[in-house]
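*** Residues and shapes ***
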Amino acid sequence: MTIEQTLINDEQRVHIFKALADPTRLQILRTLRDSRTELNCGEVGERCEASKSNASYHFRTLREAGLILVRKEAQTKYIQIRQETFDQYLPGFLDTL
C-alpha cells in the first residue's frame, strides 16, 4: 500500500468515525440493521423519533461517510446499510449495536 492509499484510507476512517459519533445516527444504523432490508427515509425517521429535517441531515452525513446507500424511486427515498464499508473498515461493528 502506498503512502497516498494509506492517507486516503485514514481520511475515510476519520470521516466514518465522525459520522458514528452521534446517538441519532447510531440509532438509524441500528434500525436499518434490524430491518435487514431497505426502508424509506420517513419510516426510519419515525422509528428513530427524528424530525424530517433532522433525519435528512443525519442521512446525508451517513451517506457522505459511505455508511448507507440511498435509492430514489419516484418521490420516495430508500436507504440501507452499505455493508462493504463496514466489512472493510469496521468488521463486526454492526453486531455490537
Observations:
- The longest helix spans residues 3-20.
- The beta strands are 39-40, 68-73, 76-81.
- The CA atoms of residues 66 and 85 lie 6 Å apart.
